[in-house]
Fold these 2 entries.
Entry 1:
Amino acid sequence: MQNNCKIIFVTGGVLSSLGKGITSASVATILKHSGYKTTMLKIDPYLNVDPGTMSPLEHGEVFVTEDGAETDLDIGHYERFLNTNLGKINNITTGQIYSKVIKKERQGKYLGQTIQVIPHIVDEIKSAIYKASVGFEFMIVELGGTVGDIEGMPFLEAVREIVFENDKSKTMNIHVTLVPYLKAAGELKTKPTQHSVQELRRIGIKPHMLVCRCERDLPDQLKKKLAYSCDVNMDAVIQAKDAKTIYAVPKEFLDDGIFGPLVTHFNLDKTKPDMTKWNNLVNNLLNPQKTIKLCFVGKYLKLKEAYKSLLEAISHSGAKHNTKVDIIWCDSETVKLKGAKNILQNCDCILVAGGFGDRGVDGKIEAIKYARTHDIPYFGICLGMQLAYIEYLQNVVGIKDATSVEFNKETKEPAVYLIEEFINTTGSKEIRTVKSPLGGTMRLGSYPFEAKKGTKLYDAYGKDIQKERHRHRYEANPIYKERLQKAGMIISAQSGELIEAVEIPSHKWFVAVQFHPEFTSTLERPNPIIDEFIKVSIKNKQGER
Ligand code: GLN
């Protein structure tokens, strides 16, 4: 299945964490802003079918797409850079590819053949790559891992074959590498890059462009050395110095001349990309006029990547309002130990993020109570909503034992419970019980809701039907609805019978949502409810309190 989409493969060399994801997203952004219909694909060579069952402390955030796929957090970067929605077909893993091949083998589809990595696994990979490219002019494919890793081999072979079976001007290989600075020698070193490119060529892949991560400017004579030793045109050796914000990377690449080699390689007819609006937002991020302090109460603080999309979404609104949002990290267990007042008293707003399991829950409830009783803008997301529901039931309605069945399976007051049957986004019935396997059984993906008129949610979203993404197993229990409303907490949105948002009208700004609004925020289009929270908090700081 071949089409007219041009494909750029991005591989990584020397070591991990070089910013392949941001490099890929930046190249895609440049092409999109030049007028090309562009998409992206992330290949993860691990054996998990998806990262849904991995710990956030190990793998960072699990990003959820509109169509309910649990994906690598790089997909989030792609959406935020491209200002578009991607889906299940934009993230493939070794686990997915092998599952498909084994399933076909069981169905007898290979007609007696011996199933092997070459050709069967590689063919399946190639077909997934081509499938994701249909309907686009450009696709950037990022290969996870580092060249030379055993698990990446079948994917590199698929890249080699795709390059081989297509016209030269249809594919391009970009290799992201490290050019370290050795203090003792006072020099930038090219050897690791040379070795990494040799490894790539041994597999049969020739890079057409090098993106070199470096702490200092790459002088021309070094670019020349890299060009000669790696067989790459000199103008296609691009420096990638550490940027102050990831959103500045497209401009930095353009300043270093990345557009020229792209034009030459692909014979492009479009002129330079129009990055005016983008660059203005980046400028706001780099030179904010105001600052607010946001207390971020969470429990995966050892790896901030666990909250990637949320942190990015907050910065998108910050950029829009020309404000630096200073995050004060509050470990939920510390809130419990030291008391909410000591930790939270100097902030302009409080956020309780999503999470799983009962560790840190008491501290989160204390933080919510503090925000509620001190009229400090509060925003709760997912678990942050479930706990706001529980806190109100415990401390205002007076149901002391209200809790979630996630923390106490036998509870008599299941304020947050497991709903066993519901209709999913595609209209089919989903069944989940305590016995369901963990992988892929949560409420996942986009669900529609309508904000109730006169609520703060309505201020943010307006009257239209909206969609936001979900990733949770438990739901707020509607049998407590009446009692809550009588006591002053309202339900401001539902998706069918499922409770999507609650708020306290008498409070300055207390809103909590069951969905994850952070997944739909992009630099050019901040999420409405996060934006409203930041806007109100800026106002709160400006002396209203
Ligand atoms: N643990 C809760 C649930 O599964 C909340 C999940 C979340 O915050 N993403 O329902």
Note: The mean pLDDT is 92.
Entry 2:
Amino acid sequence: MLENKKEDQTKLIYPDVPITSNQISISKRVEKETAIENKPFEVAKKQIDIVAEEMGLNHNIKKFLKRIERALIVSIPIKMDNGDLEIFEGYRVHHSTIRGPGKGGIRFAPNVNLDEVKALAMWMTWKCSLLDLPLGGAKGGICVDPRYLSRTELEKLTRRYTSEIINIIGPDIDIPAPDVNTNAQIMAWIMDTYSMNKGRAVPGVVTGKPIEIGGSVGRETATGMGLYFVLEAFCEKLNLDLKSQKIVIQGFGNVGGTVANLLFKEGCKIVAVSDISGGIFSSEGLEIDKLLKWTREGKYLKDYKDERYRLITNEDLLTLECDVLIPAALENQITETNANEIKCKIVLEGANGPTTPNADKILFNKGVHVVPDILANAGGVCVSYFEYVQDIHAYFWDLERINKELKMIILKAFEQVYTLSKDKKTTLRTAAYIIAVSRIVKAIELRGIFP
Ligand code: GLU
């Protein structure tokens, strides 16, 4: 029975995870892990305080920016393969729909909680605004470790969650997308559940779908591609030769894996990468193409055998000596505890919220440039926007057009951020926030407060 589950999983997300503990205790295990101290929404609100001060925003606007428009908590009962009933908790949050429908991913992870989803929704508002997309900020998630689910259980979980949040999603309301541990197949189940309820195909309800049912070419690699474009442009500003940069990447999934591949092909030396199992390091550089082949077969980096490589922990990886550090896993990785130990020139934020405000200050004082998440990893939502536009028009673009328009939009935002940070002598994050928040403030002023 358990062996079957393992086989099922192989096709989807975490292929080669040994199922050691018994299925009955999944929700208990998840509960315990959620207790870990983690307050990303406080971080997100603090970031508003910093920018509000810089912009001289009045306290009423500040209050408005910090609030969440709506948050839905849903219970998701699932009849497991072994006949037991498990109850999972899911969330969908709209931070702001003032500039358009909510937009943001859905993550399936053991630490997902309302506080985290609220922060992530708020970050999506700034990200979409910074790119000047006509979209708002939203996010969703389920507190679950999908490694312990069979494919059937995962499908049931996705469909029931979709059904529970169905009234607050839709092409004109809020458009989910992939995020941590979710992928095109999961988006297909969301689209199907929504469409079955409406009685017609509604591809525009999600982005990051398989291409065959209205997805966009280039969506899967978009976040990594955006990181690459931004790093290339930033190196040019700093008079650095991209090819000779020594790179460290935390996370080797869709985001970390893609950017690693692009930089490796460019000729950069990637000295360390990591996944959930830990990291591997080689001062001579890693063979990223071979590692990608390995992990795409569902295997962990820690099990990769090469005598030239050394195993390291995810924490040690962050403090390695390098030129560019790319945290591309989860939030809260560079904190005041380890910021002093960071030894790179540039932090390029592939994840959402990997650096806390206190760590930001420390890095600034050390002269480390932080390219903020809302700019650096915005390639994903940018191509999601293209997917949404293509679905509405029922007319699909080729990869060349996708990458050309992605580069144009993300580099325009980069130029604006870079120029403002120079003018105002601020960090790139503060500059990015000023641009993003200004557009939201303008929309609030124009629309007014109802009634
Ligand atoms: N989950 C991605 C992000 O955090 C993409 C969101 C989207 O495409 O809507 O930016």
Note: The CA atoms of residues 387 and 393 lie 10 Å apart.
